[in-house]
Amino acid sequence: MSDDHDDSAIAAQVRDLEAVLEEKGLLDPRELDQVLEAFAAKSSPANGFRVVARAWTDDGFRTRLLDDANEALPELGLSMGGGLQPQVLHVVENTADVHNVVVCTLCSCYPLSLLGPSPTWYKSPAYRSKVVSHPREVLEQFGLTLPESTRIEVWDANAESRYMVLPRRPDGTQELTEAELAGLVTRNGLIGTAAV
Amino acid sequence: MPRTNDVGGLDGFGPVVEELDEPPFHHDWEAHVMAMNRALIGQKVYNLDEFRDAVERTMSHESSYYENWFRAIRTLLKEKGVV
Amino acid sequence: MSERYRTGDRVRTSTVDPDHHTRLPHYARGHVGTVVGSDGVHPLADLSAQGIQQPQQVYLVRFTARELFGHGDHSVTLSLWEDYLSDE
Known about the structure:
The complex is a heterotrimer of chains A (about 200), B (about 80) and C (about 90).
Chain A: H1 4-23, H2 29-42, H3 45-57, H4 59-67, H5 69-72, E1 88-93, E2 98-103, H6 112-115, H7 120-123, H8 125-130, H9 135-141, E3 151-156, E4 161-166, H10 178-182, H11 187-191
Parallel strand pairs in A: 1-4, 2-3
Helix pairs in contact in A: 3-4
Chain B: H1 28-42, H2 48-58, H3 65-79
Helix pairs in contact in B: 1-3, 2-3
Chain C: E1 10-13, E2 32-43, H1 45-48, E3 55-64, H2 65-69, E4 75-81, E5 85-87
Antiparallel strand pairs in C: 1-2, 1-5, 2-3, 3-4
């Protein structure tokens, strides 16, 4: 962990390296600002919430999403582009029998464009080491206790694909609008460490 | 020996700690490291797998996530003779 | 590019502990799983990290927790390049 002193030191080192790279023509400060602005503007878990709410209310969309998420996302004006390279997205659906949970045991692979920057716990060795071998215990640390009969499917995003969980629609939400449904979804629900 | 990053199934990292209302970045420099890395990969100074390899070779669980990234960037730039 | 394995095939992962970058995690080495789908063609990460681009078929392979860890009733699915796999 870093204290404030370390952070001012590393902040200065980052600035120094930026200056060197700018001098060499490898870094354009305007490009850097653009990357940061685009990231802040477009990369948010609200995108994932919208996808889930549409899948809950439009069965055709849900089917297309599960079949080929990259093809279905543009229906909502979304894509898996915008990063370093377009990524394949697999949406995995929770059912009465199966609960899905996502991890990247080797680093921190995550669908940034749909979920925004990942939380520190997702990148932590504590989560990455344990959720593959003891998912039930890890989910309980998040306050999610699953019935013994629920089968847990862990997806290790260890290569080029990214994963997003499609949670189950909560009971008693038939009257809610799509926007209201989107408001029920949480980032952890899209990773699989919450029910919704 | 598996590399430091390869932690799946290992014991000893303690409980998962969730930070409530966590901001996207804890410090401004972290966002700059993220953007710098994207720019350098975009300019083909190195590729994403070379970057991951550099993180794996130089990382420490004692350092923060973006500290590890910054160390890897500096290592790659030095190895490639850029700086 | 022809696919060596099809959905439903049983495959064994490599036991090699390479001294370079790889995307076959330690916990998934030397185990038998089932191909559950194709995951496209991508440059083999091990070589890409050395600046060599060699696209190769990637498979979604599912393992039981019992096979991987000797306990547990869940399953784990990974994306594995053809180089990491051999016939059971």
